[in-house]
Amino acid sequence: QVQLVESGGGLVQPGGSLRLSCAASGSIFRLYVMGWYRQAPGKQRELVAAITSGGSTNYADSVKGRFTISRDNAKNTVYLQMNSLKPEDTAVYYCHAVTTGYWGQGTQVTVSS
Predict the structure, then answer these.
(1) Contact 85/92 with Cβ under 8 angstroms?
(2) Where would I find the H helices in 1-113?
(3) 67/48 Cα distance (integer angstroms)
(4) Torsion of CA 84, 93, 7, 69, to 10 degrees
(5) C-alpha span between 68 and 24 (Å, rounded)
(6) What is residue 96's three-state secondary structure?
(7) Measured distance CA(108)–CA(39) in Å, rounded
(8) How many percent of the chain have pLDDT more than 70?
(9) Is the pLDDT assigned to residue 97 strictly greater than 80?
């Protein structure tokens, strides 16, 4: 079983930044494809960014150039650096171990003045 614990969400003004972290259990984290997803009220959950074990990344068009996904295999942690945040980025953000199917509990990000 894989446990994923997100942190770093909160309230931020438009144009601000946040960094989300997702700490994973398991000794083979380095082999996992990891992703960040988000779900806004009344909308379906969508992929924000993903990173492979080799460090290849892909992003939703809506966040390209503003968000950066990264991982530290020594710490079993994946990060999502979010810059130039917009009100439409408001959502619950979930960490997902794509390789195993496990999800974190989610962390709320609210972008509002």
Answers:
(1) no
(2) none
(3) 9
(4) -60
(5) 19
(6) strand
(7) 10
(8) 100
(9) yes
